[in-house]
Amino acid sequence: MTTGLPITPAADGPAADCVRELTRKDFQTPQEVRWCPGCGDFAILAQVQKLLPSLGIPRSQFVFVSGIGCSSRFPYYVNTYGFHTIHGRAPAVATGVKCANPDLSVWVVTGDGDSLSIGTNHLIHCLRRNVDVKILLFNNRIYGLTKGQYSPTSEFGKKTKSSPLGTIEQPIRPIQMALAAEATFVARTLASDTVHLSATLAAAAKHRGAAFVEILQNCRVFNDGAFDEMGSRGDVDLRIELVHGKPLRFGVNGAKGIIQKNLEPSVVDLSSDPASEANLLVHDQRASSPALASLLADLEPPDFPLTIGVFRDLERPTYDGLLQTQIASAVAQRGQGDLRKLLNAGTTWEVD
């Protein structure tokens, strides 16, 4: 199924976008937004709608692609072009859209069940190829749309409708997976912290290449409170905000920090051991090796605070850009192709 720009008066259609400044209202649709009350999807939708007009791109140049799940209703609620595709295939469809029309700003909206089960291979290949698309992964660690089964990111031992005795699977870690695929932009944020969410989405939008953003959110019906303590109003000892070029500090007044000892991270209390400040790990999101980013991605409660922010941000040639270069080179050498001539080339035969 596809969705597109809703029918609007001619004076307010795509052409009008080029002659006036867009606002959030331009990216809202008349569709009733249907998520459960309190769902983090509302906050993400609001921040995306606020961000898009600031990018200076006409509405007709945006495409939102989704798979299956609660998050995948997103294209209906954003006044741009979009595709509501099939389970797990959103990255593949988005790759085709971007390669067919490189001038488009292509966004993928997916969930932990959609992209990290049936869609894992599509996601990994999109990231490793560095296709210039923005991928927003809504992670509530549960299957919400199908009513509460455990998902690929659910914690080990979690009891759900499909695991009444507790899961016996180790969860997929989205950030580590993206780093292993050598994604050029990898970040994590929370739906409950709209300030951090807004800044992270803006950074992803500016990136040229595959931008992967994991957005942690609660499912108010089937996994309520999963990330409440890590939000902006939660316990400051339970989160570290990554800032490029800055040492890793957290807690009240930055009284705690992270050092590396014997290739393992460790928490230090700077109030009782101020000398340790000189040994604090310093974040470098532009490091060519993903080693430091992977170490930071491993920091999770209960042993460590949760790391949020941009783990990696590198500039590398994009798949779609390299593809267009190859096409231009082939045309320059051999001329414009002729599909009918190609199909009839070589050995042919007829079947009566």
Outline:
This protein is an alpha/beta fold and 352 residues long. 26% of the residues lie in helices and 18% in strands.
Describe this structure in words.
26% of the residues lie in helices and 18% in strands. It is built from ten helices and twelve strands. The strands form two sheets. It has a nine-stranded mixed β-sheet with strand order 1-3-2-4-5-7-6-12-8, with helices on both faces. It has a three-stranded antiparallel β-sheet with strand order 9-10-11, with no helix packed on it. Strand 6 (185-190), helix 7 and strand 7 (211-216) form a beta-alpha-beta unit.
Mind sketching the topology for me?
Elements: E1 2-3, H1 41-51, E2 62-66, H2 74-77, E3 81-84, H3 90-100, E4 105-111, H4 112-118, H5 120-129, E5 133-139, H6 174-180, E6 185-190, H7 194-206, E7 211-216, E8 239-241, E9 249-250, E10 256-261, E11 264-269, H8 291-297, E12 306-313, H9 319-334, H10 339-343
Parallel strand pairs: 2-3, 2-4, 4-5, 5-7, 6-7, 8-12
Antiparallel strand pairs: 1-3, 6-12, 9-10, 10-11
Helix pairs in contact: 1-7, 4-5
In N-to-C order, the SSE pattern is: EHEHEHEHHEHEHEEEEEHEHH
Number of domains: 1
**What is the CA-CA span between the terminal residues?**
38 Å
Shape: globular
Largest sheet: 9 strands, mixed
CATH superfamily: Thiamin diphosphate (ThDP)-binding fold, Pyr/PP domains
CATH class: Alpha Beta
Low-pLDDT stretches are 1-11
Biggest sheet, spatial arrangement of strands: 1-3-2-4-5-7-6-12-8
Gyration radius (Cα, Å) is: 22 Å
Helix content: 25-40%
CATH architecture: 3-Layer(aba) Sandwich
Number of continuous helical runs: 10
Main structural class: alpha/beta
Give the integer mean of the pLDDT values: 90
Could you tell me the CATH topology label: Rossmann fold
Q: Give the total of beta strands.
A: 12
Strand content: 15-25%
